[in-house]
What does this fold into?
Amino acid sequence: VHWMETSVRPYQWQDGKLVRYLGASRNITANKEAEQERLAQQEQIEVLNGRLRRAMQETHHRVKNNLQVI
It folds into this structure.
């Protein structure tokens, strides 16, 4: 799959008569692939952050219970 970005403008005479359209396209596939990779990494980071938060809560709970025994 290739992603393309296209821009088109009308080319007119001074009287406003349309002569033709001028356009340009560029391949943005690398940008799209990088964006998809970044989104996948962001999702992995969010999953790991959730796991870290749960581990910290559990550790806090265990330390708190151990301190109550002391």
